[in-house]
Design brief:
alpha/beta, 9-stranded mixed beta sheet, 11 helices
Length: 340
């Protein structure tokens, strides 16, 4: 029923508007396997060979509330809504990476991989919200694989993940081509499967140098079969560190996914810690911080309580500190279900 209702609902799209001096403009770099709609700065849903590259300037309103994306309800207004105030299409990945390096010299790149049933507009606004709420200071790049953007397109999206894994691997190589370049991977839902497939592909190629350039991985509500994850991790070998999995037992989207794939709980809903038997993986349960929004499928970045907690940890430890994992382990709630 949830899928049918969502399928009939209209989808919001990113809209242009004049800038507002009180708003915060967040540049979002995008590498996408979607075909460019020449009528505007919007990429469609069709798969295309290779990637397209562009930057969009997302304006976050001064009235923004943590965890929210303030979509326009009527004519877009930068004073109250997320809007696009500028775009630039790049002729090559090198041109985009060069601009990222010029604007953010010496900083590692936050690469966000969205999940199933996401449009480009939704994904780039989500990354802008994350960048704003966590004040990362890192350049943000969205890898927008060709999701159907339709809740009825689950199988199409799973195929699109396989279609896009080579492109994600190539993008990681582009982002780490210069000495000292680092990438932090943040993946959501089915995007976690894409990240694991790419890391597996890199490991099979023997390119440990590239794996060592990945400064950390976070899988939020990963839509992966736990057995498949174990096999992927086994092939990858030494995982990038830190490697975090954020779960929420009340995730209604993953409940539906589990039903579609055979009634087996997905990795983002595991109920015991021994479902992930690796010393190099940390699993954190956000169930007690779920507030019901968004089917509880994105709790770490949509729940104000979760955002406040993670911001506090980041402020104390710093996003690149080796104490990040230790601090999170001490501060996050530990319900009985996560005891060994």
């Amino acid at each position: 029923m949830v899928l049918l209702i969502a399928a009939c609902a209209p989808r919001a799209t990113a809209e242009r508007a004049a800038p507002n001096p009180a708003a915060t403009v967040v540049p979002i770099y995008v590498a996408t396997g979607r075909r460019l709609d020449q009528t505007g700065p919007i990429f469609g849903l069709e798969r295309t060979e290779g990637l397209r590259y562009f930057r969009t300037d997302v304006s976050v309103p001064p009235t923004h509330q943590p965890g929210q994306i303030e979509w326009p309800d009527g004519p877009p207004d930068a004073a109250t809504d997320f809007v696009v105030t500028g775009t630039e299409v790049f002729p090559s990945p090198g041109a985009m990476v060069n601009e990222v390096r010029q604007e953010h010299a010496g900083r590692e790149t936050l690469l966000f991989v969205h999940g199933y049933n996401n449009t480009l507009s939704e994904a780039m606004y989500r990354l802008a919200q994350i960048q704003t709420d966590f004040d990362t200071g890192m350049p943000g790049l969205l890898f927008s694989w060709p999701s159907a953007g339709d809740p009825r397109g689950y199988i199409y999206d799973r195929d699109s993940v396989l279609y896009a894994r080579d492109d994600l691997t190539d993008m990681l190589r582009q982002l780490t081509r210069a000495p000292g370049d680092k990438v932090f991977l943040l993946a959501h839902s089915m995007g976690s499967s894409l990240v694991m497939e790419s890391l597996r592909e890199i490991a099979l190629s023997g390119d440990r140098h590239l794996l060592n350039r990945i400064s950390g991985v976070v899988l939020m509500s990963p839509d992966i079969d736990p057995d498949v994850f174990d096999r992927q991790a086994e092939v990858i070998g030494k995982l990038p560190q830190p490697f975090l999995i954020f779960i929420t037992k009340a995730d209604r989207a993953l409940t539906v996914s589990g039903f579609i794939t055979g009634r087996k709980p997905r990795l983002g809903m595991i109920d015991t810690v021994d479902k992930v038997q690796r010393p190099d993986v940390q699993v954190f349960d956000f169930s007690t911080l779920a507030d019901g929004s968004g089917l509880n499928h994105f709790v770490p970045v949509t729940s104000p309580a979760a955002i406040g907690l993670l911001r506090e940890i980041l402020a104390e430890s710093g996003p690149q500190s080796s104490d990040f994992i230790k601090s999170m382990a001490l501060r996050l709630p530990k319900p009985k279900v996560l005891q060994p």
